[in-house]
Automatic annotation (TrEMBL):
GO MF annotation terms: pyridoxal phosphate binding; transferase activity
CDD domains named among the record's database cross-references: AAT_like (cd00609)
Name of the featured protein: Pyridoxal phosphate-dependent transferase
Residue ranges with Pro residues bias: 195-210
Domain of life (superkingdom): Eukaryota
Species the sequence originates in: Bombardia bombarda
Length: 388
């Protein structure tokens, strides 16, 4: 990938993120301190996110057993029970994404990617010589809308993956502005969208999500974000505008009865802990996980034991519901503030200078700024001067 261009979105935010007081560009819920996190435990006096007796050695290659067990539990469903062996811990989800994209397809292959989305998800395959088709979402009366018929029409014989970013949420796990609640991802339509597995298992040299050498067509569904199959947290009384949620709660993509699936996630966005670099890859396919570990060996020795300990504390059954309720309340208040601002400047009610598609199941959104003769540059510079 010697000719890959700059990641403009990341570079822009990296240059400016420390100049501002209100990070409007961010997609993570307001981060917690360790003290704030500890208070969320049922018995704060007996619990701590940090084990002060911890020996600061290397972690296990695949990641902490306790953390992997909890992530597997969160992603499991009634049809598929996952274990710690199905999980690989990575330093953040951006590396989890990179590893998955690196092993799923190569030159001569084809992938389908939801769009608009995080640039990494379509750019990495493209600059590895993979042909990429964009499954474009369209803003409509009901939010960002997707056509299942259009998706089916994009599938080819050499399609190796359908890449979907945070499409189903119970909480602000959908951290991209085009995130939406997509009820089509269920047992029935997932089977319709992806071809059935071959009648006999592929040979060892042709794993279930094959390498570019394989001629057997398989489709993997890649989804980024924390699994939504969690108990619904009670809404906070201080949240006047609750984040829309899916009812009934859709399952994690890796809990569907289709073996060629893979999901990545992290504690950065919905959980609000981007300062600990913890992400993961989870899949029911042993062959896929073996290839992920092979690729990971070239990028990562281990993940920080301190980070793993804090992540395990945050995801614990006694802490996670309270943490999600706190984050939902923050998102609800923030969405209400943004809605009021957009209403005051949109067509019909204000100056007509801005428009947006309100988020569904997410805490972020695209706000379009109509600037005469420009591309929003003057407006962005004005925001920066004000510390936004």
């Amino acid at each position: 990938m010697k000719d890959i261009p700059e990641f403009n979105l990341n570079r822009w935010s990296q240059r400016r993120q420390h100049e501002i007081k209100i990070p409007l560009h961010g997609s993570a819920v307001r981060p917690l301190s360790l003290a704030e996190l500890q208070i969320l435990a049922p018995d704060a006096s007996l619990s701590s996110p940090v084990d002060h007796q911890l020996v600061l050695a290397y972690s296990k290659a695949q990641g902490s057993l306790k953390l992997r067990e909890r992530i597997a539990e969160i992603h499991s469903g009634s049809a598929v029970k996952l274990t710690a062996d199905n999980v690989i811990i990575t330093p953040g989800s951006i590396l989890a994404n990179y590893l998955a994209l690196a092993i799923l397809a190569g030159p001569g292959d084809h992938v389908i990617c939801q769009y608009p989305t995080f640039t990494q998800l379509w750019a990495i395959p493209k600059f590895q010589g993979v042909e990429v088709s964009l499954w474009k979402l369209k803003p409509g009366d009901n939010g960002w809308e997707a056509s299942l018929d259009e998706l089916k029409g994009l599938v080819r014989e050499n399609t190796k993956a359908i890449i979907i970013k945070c499409v189903i949420t119970l909480h602000p796990g959908a951290t991209h502005p085009s995130s939406f609640i997509l009820m089509m991802i269920n047992n029935t339509t997932a089977t319709q969208t992806t071809p059935p597995a071959p009648s006999s298992p592929p040979p060892p040299s042709s794993p279930s999500c094959p390498s570019p050498r394989s001629t057997t067509p398989h489709h993997a569904l890649l989804r980024r974000g924390l699994c939504p199959a969690l108990p619904r947290p009670s809404p906070s009384p201080s949240s006047t505008t609750p984040v829309p949620v899916a009812t009934p709660t859709p399952p994690s993509i890796v809990s569907l009865p289709y073996p060629h699936t893979l999901a990545t996630g992290s504690v950065s966005k919905a959980i609000g802990l981007p300062g600990i670099r913890i992400g993961w890859v989870i899949s029911p396919s042993t062959a896929v996980l073996n290839r992920i570990m092979t690729a990971r060996d070239y990028t990562t020795i281990s993940v920080s034991l301190l980070d793993e300990g804090v992540a395990a504390f945050a995801l614990a059954p006694g802490v996670l519901p309270a943490l999600l309720a706190r984050n939902l309340a923050i998102c609800g208040r923030s969405i209400a503030l943004l809605q009021a601002w957009v209403d005051g400047h949109s067509k019909g009610t204000g100056s007509g200078r801005v428009a947006w598609v309100p988020p569904q199941g997410a805490g972020t959104a695209f706000v379009r700024v109509f600037e005469k003769g420009g591309r929003g540059g003057r407006w962005m510079r004005r925001c920066l001067r004000r510390g936004w």
